[in-house]
Amino acid sequence: MIDQGSYPNKYVVDTNIIIYTLAGVKAAVWAMKKLEDDDIEVYYSTIVEAELFSFHELTLEQKSKIRGILDIGEIVEVDSNVALKAAKLRAISKKDHNRKLKLPDAIVAATALLLAAVLVTRNVEDFKHLRRHGLHLYNPFEQR
């Protein structure tokens, strides 16, 4: 189910969806194909870009495929607004939910919130407590 609220045409894609797409996993490939629609705005955090390119044995072909997927959308820099929102989300996660939110996840969630976009991720468990704080989630693996 798409938990898209009032902004169904803006999506921030998490690292795991791209990894599954590169591996040819049907649910992720299907989701990424749907996001290529002209009416949909796709975003990635620079943290996603860093995570994808940090694998130490990437071939030139793999790097090219990653870049091709990232070219579907727009890379969003981690600026002060994103950093402060991520810090707030980490604090809220610990204080209100007794959960430790990893910094990369907080940055991705902050990016989605600041863009008023749906976060596309398979790792819903890492983010579901943030629904109370306005985060909307879409897990393409729950669609099939």
What does this structure look like?
By secondary structure, the protein is α/β, with parallel strands linked by helices. The protein has seven helices and five strands. It has a single domain (10-142), classed as 3-Layer(aba) Sandwich (Rossmann fold). A five-stranded parallel beta sheet has the order 3-2-1-4-5. Strand 4, helix 7 and strand 5 form a beta-alpha-beta unit. The radius of gyration is 15 Å and the shape is globular. The N and C termini lie close together (10 Å). InterPro entries: PIN-like_dom_sf, PIN_dom, Type_II_TA_system_RNase.
Could you give a quick summary of the protein structure above?
By secondary structure, the chain is α/β, with parallel strands linked by helices.
Count every helix, treating DSSP H or I runs of 4 or more residues as helices: 7
CATH topology: Rossmann fold
Q: What's the CATH C level? A: Alpha Beta
Low-confidence stretches at least 5 residues in length (pLDDT < 50)? none
- Work out the strand percent: 5-15%
Tally of DSSP β-strands: 5
Which structural class best describes the helix and strand composition?
A: alpha/beta
- Terminal CA distance reads 10 Å
Total separate domains: 1
Q: Biggest sheet: strands side by side, in what order? A: 3-2-1-4-5
Compressed to H and E, one letter per element, the order equals: EHHEHHEHHEHE
Shape: globular
Supply the CATH architecture: 3-Layer(aba) Sandwich
Roughly how much helix do the residues carry, as a percent range?
Answer: 40-55%
C-alpha-based Rg, rounded: 15 Å
Question: Considering the protein shown, what is the CATH homologous superfamily?
Answer: 5'-nuclease
Largest sheet: 5 strands, parallel
Mean pLDDT: 92
